[in-house]
Specification:
The structure holds two protein chains of two kinds. By secondary structure, chain A is an all-beta fold. Chain A contains no helices and eleven strands. In chain A, strands 2, 4, 5, 6, 9, 10 and 11 form a seven-stranded mixed sheet that branches. In chain A, strand 5 and strand 6 form a beta hairpin. In chain A, 37% of the residues are buried. The mean pLDDT of chain A is 92. In chain B, strand 7 and strand 8 form a beta hairpin. The radius of gyration of chain B is 14 Å and the shape is globular. The chains are: A mainly beta, B mainly beta. The interface between A and B is medium-sized, with 33 and 32 residues.
Chain lengths: 114, 114
Amino acid sequence: DVKVTQSSRYLVKRTGEKVFLECVQDMDHENMFWYRQDPGLGLRLIYFSYDVKMKEKGDIPEGYSVSREKKERFSLILESASTNQTSMYLCASSFLAGGRETQYFGPGTRLLVL
Amino acid sequence: DQQVKQNSPSLSVQEGRISILNCDYTNSMFDYFLWYKKYPAEGPTFLISISSIKDKNEDGRFTVFLNKSAKHLSLHIVPSQPGDSAVYFCAASASTGTASKLTFGTGTRLQVTL
């Protein structure tokens, strides 16, 4: 079974803090993704990576950065957390297969920024 | 611009009856479609997919239908069970050389009643 784990299930942070969300997958997947899920908006792609040290912006990258130093690990960084970044954050991974891969998701991190 | 739309935010169906969840898309480059199921406080779980070269794919109680001319797909669940109560997301991707970005709909909450 594919396993995608996220470092925290729940986080509470203060405005202006730097926040790190960690994601690890154990299936040697090339691709990794970060989404946020908000009511009425579905899942929106923040950043993704198709190889170590490679990253591409998704649909809503503003206020976020990412790091992928190892194939199995993809980190999402909120440089200076703001209240509008309160959300459910979901990490996913997939094989590189030219448009036919399936993304597998972690359990999510619910972040509250006060 | 919402490229994948799920116009019904919620649906209630009696146990044993058919559940039909609908999804429309606008981007004609999309050629692979997926349905995910999400329980509260968990990550989305892959349910079923369909390539644009097919118009139907079946897996047990779940069948996805694709109407390319109408840019419409639907998920049928027969018979519906209480454990099917969850939020269902439709997603679409276009073939690329690198990671396939999924574009998600806003979700439909299915409630299966006894």
